[in-house]
Amino acid sequence: MKKLESGKGTKMNYFILAYRNLKKKGIRSYLTLLGICIGILAVVSLITLGNGLKMAVSSQFGVSATELISVQASGGAYGPPGTDTINPITTNDLKEIEKLSSVKAAVGRVMVTGSLEFNDKVVFGYATNIPGGDDRKILYNQLEAKAVVGRLLKEGESGKVFLGYNFYADKVGLGKPILPGNTVKIQGRNFEVVGILEKKGSFIFDNLVYMNENDLQDLFGYGEELNIIAVLPTDKENLEKTKEDIEKLLRRLRDVDVDSEDFTVSTPEASLKQVNSILNAIQIFVIIIASISIFIGAIGIINTMSTSVLERKKEIGIMKAIGATNHQIFMQFFVESGFLGLIGGGIGVLLGVILGYFGIIGINNFIGSDMQPKISFFLIFFALLGSFMIGAAAGILPAMKAARQNPVEALRG
Amino acid sequence: MKKTIDSEKVIIHLHDVAKHYYMGDNVVKAVDDISINIKRGDFVAVMGPSGSGKSTAMNLIGSLDMPIRGHIFLDGEDISSLDESELAQVRGKNIGFIFQQFNLIPTLTVKENVILPMTLQGLSEYERDEKADKILHRLDLYDRKDHYPNQISGGQQQRVAIARALANDPEVILADEPTGNLDTKTGLKVMDFLTELNKEGRTVVVVTHSSELAKKYAHTVYWLKDGKIERISKERKKAFEKVGKWKGD
């Protein structure tokens, strides 16, 4: 019996003392933790979301191969030709670009919006052209295009399409997966589906309808206009040279001066860099806000702990009377303050992870991407450690004040 | 009579000790150049009216307070020259405090309150547990060990305070009005227990208002007034002399 009792010993250390005191604290003390909570929430959700976004963006660029240069008219990116670009890129530009010595091949890309009817339901989306001849090979190569079921389009086929993976996975809202052999109505005309493109993990490629150029031209009549010209350079190591050549050519063709171009020629790295710099700017902004709220939170903790020192003056006196050194008193308040920060941070981490998690699911639903919400335990660990340290740091001054109390005065309360 | 300090016999020695407070322009001489010898194993009562400096004297003896001049020796060591953390060690190891207000930590259970002084001295969990259980059994508090101070009676709280004072097995027990917040019967029990501790060889110093208690329990009585050990009225002196306990001049 006696052995059993001494087996479960009464634990006591700074953490237990802190825990006991925090348990007794009123709601008022916990409200001051809101600052730290919001700050940590912002950081954690931002990093969780940010990593996801970066992954998504990288994967969008990743599928369109890294050695391709893209040429677009400025002002419109993926709009259908003629709607929002002032001076569209044309097949004429394409022909001239193909003639450049630093260009191995160039493929004109068109993307148009249209309706697709299947299973008595209609959805709207993008259709793109599959060019003929060598350009087809280049495009298939660059896309690393493979059919997951059925096959890709062949030269000269008419009335046939292949579709992005999401049509097969029933993620486009048709209520039923489309299989090779099915017939779909595009812009009111019947097409036979010959195959489904392998999953690309990109909301653009996975939601596209791929159609031979003649059919697309027939159906939409976009004339000479192109959305993008994808350029394969002769020298993969020298993208910049090709880029400059194209720029020089287009300035002449379109009669514009340097710095007032109505087109952009971008290398994949540059595009990635641009997206990343936007993401970084957002991150910096959120981090500034987070820092401000953490700072306010820290001041709240200083305030709470200072009040606590006053309220527990007598307790400090008692502790000193029964042998607590100044250092021990300091540590008690220091650890308690750290715990206060940890509680705020812990709630922040929890909410941040939830926000990040559902944020990514939301983005997936919105753009049809396929990001995995990744919860970084490394991040959680450092967020918790950080909030403990912020709390502890905020507690230094109050803890010093507590430690320096004169025992006799403190005992008087 | 020759005055030498024999630390075999004298455990507490105050030598010309003064403690003054400054309140605005007024100087309050709480303790004004007093010299006291407390013998090892004595049961001492410090008496006097309110504001006479009893509590200040007690705080000085207990190393909670520092004199502005003079020397305080505890067990032969001059504690008036120690720094704060050394003083904390002295309080933790050599002295057990008992207060009128019990002064338990409200957020800790009975047992945890008893364990706290041992924790501060760095005792292991096992040692603490064993000692605390022993002390709690002795004070008949074992079945209350998991209660919080506000869940037990005043008398029980004061017993917890005594248990806590005994945690590090100190040689000196200092009790400042230990019965002040208790009814007579409970107060007497507390005094009986202090006597028991005294019989074990511990030196007990009690500050009290009550000459009844002083007469009944103390072996030695000091009477303080205005910070000095005071000459008292003939009747009062006689009463104490009759029982051989008077220590004024």
Structure description:
The complex is a heterodimer of chains A (413) and B (249). Chain A is α+β, with helices and mostly antiparallel strands. Chain A folds into 2 domains: 13-59 and 273-412, no CATH class; 66-267, no CATH class. Chain A has 16 helices and 13 strands. Chain A has helices at residues 2-7, 14-24, 27-31, 34-63, 91-99, 134-143, 165-168, 203-206, 213-220, 239-254, 268-311, 313-321, 326-367, 377-394, 396-403, 407-412; strands at 69-73, 89-90, 103-109, 111-118, 121-130, 147-150, 160-163, 183-186, 189-197, 209-212, 225-226, 228-233, 263-266. In chain A, β8 and β9 form a beta hairpin. The two termini of chain A are 42 Å apart. By secondary structure, chain B is α/β, with parallel strands linked by helices. Chain B has one domain: P-loop containing nucleotide triphosphate hydrolases (Rossmann fold). Helices cover 36% and strands 25% of the residues of chain B. Chain B contains 8 helices and 10 strands. In chain B, the strands form 2 sheets. Chain B has a 6-stranded mixed β-sheet, with helices on both faces. In chain B, strands 2-1-4-5 form a 4-stranded antiparallel β-sheet, with helices on one face. In chain B, α3 packs across α4 (125-138). Chain B starts with 9 loop residues before the first strand and ends in a 7-residue tail after the last helix. The chains are: A alpha+beta (413), B alpha/beta (249). At the A-B interface, α2, α12, α13 and α16 of A face α2, α3 and α4 of B.
